[in-house]
């Protein structure tokens, strides 16, 4: 089964400097949400830092679409995850994105050019439109054969989803 990453516009209105989580979730106690995320991430064996802000990820999505056209570029997804969720890096800063790409041995100068020229803008626009058409409302969303699992779910839920897909595929 092939996995393909498709960008999704989560909080696309977020300004370049980002927004504090306290502001984003104003009036809500975010500590229980943070504890739940840390718990789910730990269960999945993923690192999760002490995030204080949300950042606009549009340029990171465009970079990722480009990176996936390059040898070894699939590693960009893990690197962007780590930068955002572990190291609290502002993914709307071009310099930070170029550094992430360079750390993966991708051509940093070309990455900068791709970002500054917005070479993958239309590709990401099409991805966002597809997400809207499919009714996707959150991340991550695992989608196949008109079935979806939305949000950070326990491993067992994802395992059942994949087993169901494999079963239905073998019956076709």
Description:
With 172 residues, the chain is mainly α. The protein has two domains: 19-135, Glutaredoxin; 140-172, no CATH class. It has eight helices and four strands, in the order βααβαααααββα. The chain has a two-stranded antiparallel ribbon with strand order 1-2. A hairpin with a 2-residue loop joins β3 (141-144) and β4. It is globular. The mean pLDDT is 90.
Please name the defining characteristics of this protein.
2 domains; mainly alpha; two-stranded antiparallel ribbon; 172 residues; 52% helix; 8 helices; Glutaredoxin
Strand order of the largest sheet: 1-2
> How do the helices and strands follow one another from N- to C-terminus?
EHHEHHHHHEEH
Quaternary = single chain
Task: Please bin the fraction of helical residues.
Answer: 40-55%
Largest sheet: 2 strands, antiparallel
State the CATH superfamily name of the largest domain: Glutaredoxin
Mean pLDDT: 90
User: What ranges have pLDDT less than 50 throughout 5 or more consecutive residues?
Assistant: none
Strand residue content: 5-15%
Instruction: Return the CATH topology of the largest domain.
Output: Glutaredoxin
Terminal Cα span: 15 Å
Instruction: Write down the CATH class of the largest domain.
Output: Alpha Beta
